[in-house]
Amino acid sequence: MSKKILILAGDGIGPEVMTEVKRIISWMNARGLTDFAVSEGLVGGSAYDVHGVPLADETMAEAMDADAVLLGAVGGPKWDSLDFSVKPERGLLRLRKEMELFANLRPALVFDALAEASSLKLDIVKGLDIMIVRELTGGVYFGQPRGITTLENGERQGLNTQVYTTSEIVRIAEVAFDLAYKRGKKVHSVEKANVMESGLLWREEVQKLRDAKYGDIALEHMYADNCAMQLVRNPKQFDVIVTDNLFGDLLSDCAAMLTGSLGMLPSASIGADIGGGKRRAMYEPVHGSAPDIAGQGKANPLACILSYSMMLRYSFGMLDVADMLDNAVQDVLNQGIRTGDIMQAGATLVGTSGMGDALLKALEARA
Ligand SMILES: NC(=O)c1ccc[n+]([C@@H]2O[C@H](COP(=O)([O-])OP(=O)(O)OC[C@H]3O[C@@H](n4cnc5c(N)ncnc54)[C@H](O)[C@@H]3O)[C@@H](O)[C@H]2O)c1
């Protein structure tokens, strides 16, 4: 039975990079490697222009019904002055909230051909392959009470609450352990158990889960400040890192930059199990809508293409097809083909569609 994919290309370079993903999906469908039924909808500023909201109810319903959602990027100067309630980003937040996407997967993978783009030394990052699993719907960004109040002495006070329950910790840790099974069988759980009770609970619950269900996964606990240091000192010691919303926000950006290029970074957000082994999921590049280069055919489509590869791998278990696509990306980079953002001396500069052409050729060669 064919799987339903909802594509929400969004704004700015979103539709440009998504055009290249759609070419790859068509190629894979035509080859019989996949059987995807693709539908498309609007999100962000482009949805606001048509519907007056950044995500229409019908599009939300389609996302809930889809087997996976692939998103481009949202936002841009045209919509910067809109009221907060209808800003393009609210469309994304609605998707994340209603699909209950609690686990954010951010790989930091260094392609050999691009290792020199990292700000760290070549031998420290070459061959790097880390997966950061960030809790996305709990913790200090959502905890109550919160707010700014005026105290009796006239001083103002800003308040946020870091809070986690057992079930929130267990479900994110399960995602990390399950991923580790398919990778290097090693998980680092990261918190501040030395100074925060929520961190201590996190540590105890992750350890309990590991002992009960994941005996052959090596688990290490690490304080978040040490993890930040270790990520730039010796990042290859890590396989899977699982951490809360706040620390994950910082550490995933830090790890991403080890790879040296925003235009190469994919991500996945995974939701609750909704039965039949199915989980809601949304895949999107880490980068935004890049208004400075939008409409010029210059954007690097690889982050979006690698997000599609994560969809193949994590939503549909099509490991061979995902490997084939990842290897084709390697081939193209090894051939010295580059968009402007990853350009190096002696390489061949191409635009968005030129990168898509090269990738399809590399896929043909591997098929
Ligand atoms: N998930 C999302 O949709 C998302 C994420 C971040 C920012 N945004 C929005 O995007 C808009 C621009 O934000 P920003 O400039 O801070 O971040 P950005 O990621 O859009 O761009 C940062 C820089 O990286 C470059 N860049 C980004 N992606 C690229 C690609 N694929 N190929 C080549 N170069 C690329 C841009 O040209 C720019 O110079 C804002 O409206 C912001 O709110 C959306």
TrEMBL record:
Record-annotated site: Important for catalysis: Y141, K192
All copies of domain Isopropylmalate dehydrogenase-like, residue ranges: 4-359
Protein EC: 1.1.1.85
Subcellular compartments: Cytoplasm
Keyword annotations: Amino-acid biosynthesis, Branched-chain amino acid biosynthesis, Cytoplasm, Leucine biosynthesis, Magnesium, Manganese, Metal-binding, NAD, Oxidoreductase
Cofactor: Mn(2+); Mg(2+)
One of the GO BP terms on file: L-leucine biosynthetic process
Catalytic activity, reaction form: (2R,3S)-3-isopropylmalate + NAD(+) = 4-methyl-2-oxopentanoate + CO2 + NADH
A single GO cellular-component term on record: cytosol
Cited function: Catalyzes the oxidation of 3-carboxy-2-hydroxy-4-methylpentanoate (3-isopropylmalate) to 3-carboxy-4-methyl-2-oxopentanoate. The product decarboxylates to 4-methyl-2 oxopentanoate.
Quaternary structure and partners: Homodimer.
Family note: Belongs to the isocitrate and isopropylmalate dehydrogenases family. LeuB type 1 subfamily.
NCBIfam families hit by this protein: leuB
Name under which the protein is recorded: 3-isopropylmalate dehydrogenase
The organism's taxonomic lineage, starting at the top: Bacteria, Pseudomonadati, Pseudomonadota, Alphaproteobacteria, Rhodospirillales
